[in-house]
Amino acid sequence: MNSYKFRQVFKENIGINNPVFVQILGICSTLAVTNVLRNTVVMCAGLVFVTGLSNLTVSALRKYIPGRVRMMVETLIIAAYVIIVDVVLKAYIPDISRQLGPYVGLIITNCIIMGRAEAFALSNPPGLSLVDGLTSGLGYSYVLLIIAFLRELLGTGSIWGVRVLGAWWTNWNIMIMAPGAFFMLALFIWVVKGNFMKEKKAQGPASTPAPQAVSTGGKS
Amino acid sequence: MNDNKKANKLRRSLFTIFFMFAVTFVFISVLSLIYVLTRDTIRLNESLVVKRAVLYVAGLEVPQSGIEADALYRDRVREVKDGQGVVLYYEILNAKGGSVQSYVLPVLGAGLWGEIEAVVGVEKDLKTLTGIEFIKQNETPGLGGRITESWFKEQFRGKRWPLQSVPEGEPTGDQEFQAITGATNTVNGVKGILNDRLAKAEQAIKAPE
Q1: Which chain A residue has the Cα nearest residue B135?
Q2: What is the Cα–Cα distance from B120 to B197, expressed in whole angstroms?
């Protein structure tokens, strides 16, 4: 029963209910930090940390949090973890922290985290919530990493700052700029929905509509 | 019955306030602790951004470790400040004699989207550049933002100002540098900063001597 639930959570967040390409959440950072792979990895690590632990904390406190102030408490918890990430980045990898600029702080407003806290952590035990948070973060991360990989490759001819395409390659400058992110994300969603999501939809359209309702809180 | 309800409501409100207070208190305490633990490292990192830049444009090899870079900076760089403590320029000292070997100037000017803050190194003649490093810039990523790429910065070493730009990829003379395709305004900004500010800095350094 339990391991079934864990697997279910995993499948939802990585695939059929992926925060980025199904729920279209966390788009702001998807567009902003995917021009260089190295920054994306750091951003994703930060986000996985925050979603996992904030879900865990909210879930552990869920029986005590008064209903009326639950959003305040959630925001407080999320903000605390984000500040921890920000401080640690500033102290130990200052140059990446400088490049990410405000986007680390903006993890606080990432809808995925608040969404998972509201939709999942408030009604599930801590262990399962932790897994849900981590897998949501991973579901977000792998999409970003794929986009960042393609953008850096096409935009600068390099991967992780190392030139991999020869001198014959003309950099597609637009890939590093914001429009490139829109194109890449749209193409990604198109390819995934066109090729992988069709059958699953035919099988069971009843796959938990609950998180969708949460996504109305603005798409950051 | 009514009184009981009121009391209940009050109790719940008080609990809510107490709960908020307690949660906030716990999280703020944890954050303060982390802040205190990392404060010195962060401060060092922030000061190192400028220090590393100064060493880099002076043509010195910048050590990886922050402490070593800091030591080298203290060893080789003398800050010349005005009355308010603002750094006017940096004097790079000789490894042995301690005499001035070259200068590094903080410069500031308009880019396309915002201010470009940089440090520029010049030889003792105040004409030959030893390097340039950008400390703050908000240029378009992928276009003007490429001024931070190593090939762009490195090409200034040994050039003499006033500088002119040539199209990207073309050979450059003694007073020319390669522009960035698609970033004309940024490149013009950089060129202006270099030529104007260096002329002013030249006067500033020469004046007291």
Answers
A1: A98
A2: 10
